[in-house]
Amino acid sequence: MAEPMPPSAERLCASAELAERGRGVLFDLLLHGRPARGFALRIDGRAVAYLNQCAHVPVELDWREGEFLGLDRRWIVCAVHGATYEPGSGQCIAGPCKGARLRRIALSEVDGAVYWHSTPDLRPQCPAAAAAAASPT
């Protein structure tokens, strides 16, 4: 019998949606109560997820929605200033934040689905909060 999913688990996508070194799957969340985004990739057969925020300047990394990897599909590259990250660890290997890391988001993969796990500072964004954040004031 499969173990129950912990209460911190939020379904992200079907496992098949994460192609090896393919497009990332984006998801909305709250970072310290403020809207933010995360992304998941499949790297060397393993699903990984990070906060969609460069370690140098807090800007989103993708150069086109869901596109995080460079043309050779080897590194995560910041679209703003070219910081280059090792996708399996999130370690910055080149650029202005060399030595820093992307903020990892814990994932699990069970029964053909990928789940992300909230923490005290990373929480799910409820639909009502997302609608309120998107509406003009």
Provide a short characterization of the protein structure.
The protein is 6% helix and 35% strand. It has one helix at residues 127-134; strands at residues 9-14, 25-31, 34-43, 46-51, 76-77, 84-85, 92-94, 107-110, 113-117, 122-124. A hairpin with a 2-residue loop joins strand 3 (34-43) and strand 4.
Distinctive features:
single chain; 137 residues; mainly beta; 4-stranded antiparallel β-sheet; 3-stranded antiparallel β-sheet; 1 helix; 10 strands; 35% strand; globular; disordered C terminus
Secondary structure elements and their pairing?
Layout: E1 9-14, E2 25-31, E3 34-43, E4 46-51, E5 76-77, E6 84-85, E7 92-94, E8 107-110, E9 113-117, E10 122-124, H1 127-134
Antiparallel strand pairs: 1-9, 2-3, 2-10, 3-4, 5-6, 6-7, 8-9
